[in-house]
Amino acid sequence: MRPVVVRNIPIGEGRPKVCVPIVGKTTREILEDARQILALPADVVEWRADHYDDVWKNDKLLDTARALREILGGKPILFTFRTANEGGERPIDADRYEELLGTMARSGLIDLIDVEIFMGDDTVRRIIADAHEQNVPIVASNHDFEKTPPQDEIVRRLCRMQDFGADILKIALMPRCRQDVLTLLAATLEMSERHTDRPLITMSMAGMGLVSRLTGECFGSALTFGAASKASAPGQIGAEELASVLDVIHTNL
């Protein structure tokens, strides 16, 4: 796997990296969460800006990003606006989504940007091209909070992300049964061994899918999400507990 190196953190090499989300609604909450994360084994921090009350106010958005950057120092920041269609807090149209991500790519304050691949092909291509002009890597993503599609469809979606030129490929799916968890893991293994040399982030959600967050390294997943004070998706466990389990598995592989 060809790692994506962000602020000296190689995503796709070694033990899966731990990403801790910030889901504060106010600038104060966001910065408090950031200070708390400094004490956790977090390799990457995800700012879930769809939770932020002032996300539509560019001046406040950028001021908060500057303060967040100052607190986190050299920790990579992944900027994410998760849309309501994929489990996020707010709806957003394609034009506004493109404008928001473009603003953050050009800000110089964040290190990675999450782009949902079903926002429209032209929109996605422009966002990725704009981010790459700023040397900001893209995490292409897809989330289904209702079900897990068949293995070939999971692989198709991940390949679609790669075809768009994304640097990291991410999919998160809801299992309805234990077989769904195995389907997600099998798709991860197939993708990592046969279809890509780029880092993958895959997970089966909720308690049933927790095993996928813990054992992803065995199947080809390069990063997983652990909570600080509040989880951003069902099935996340605390970052410290998560890092401990990842260390044990990595040491014994």
Can you describe this structure?
By secondary structure, the chain is α/β, with parallel strands linked by helices. Helix content is 43%, strand content 19%. The protein has helices spanning 27-37, 58-72, 94-107, 121-133, 151-164, 178-195, 210-214, 216-219, 239-252, and strands at residues 4-6, 9-11, 17-22, 44-48, 77-80, 112-116, 138-144, 168-173, 200-204, 223-225. Helix 3 (94-107) links the parallel strand 5 (77-80) and strand 6. Helix 3 (94-107) packs parallel to helix 4 (121-133). The protein is globular and about 45 Å long. 48% of the residues are buried. The model has no long low-confidence stretch (mean pLDDT 95).
Could you write a compact summary of the structure shown?
The chain has helices spanning 27-37, 58-72, 94-107, 121-133, 151-164, 178-195, 210-214, 216-219, 239-252, and strands at 4-6, 9-11, 17-22, 44-48, 77-80, 112-116, 138-144, 168-173, 200-204, 223-225. With 253 residues, it is an alpha/beta fold.
Number of helices: 9
Order of helices and strands: EEEHEHEHEHEHEHEHHEH
What integer is the average pLDDT?
95
Q: What is the CA-based Rg, rounded?
A: 17 Å
Morphology? globular
**What is the CA-CA span between the terminal residues?**
16 Å
Portion in beta strands: 15-25%
Q: Helix fraction?
A: 40-55%
Class computed from helices, strands and strand pairing: alpha/beta
- Uncertain stretches of 5 or more adjacent residues: none
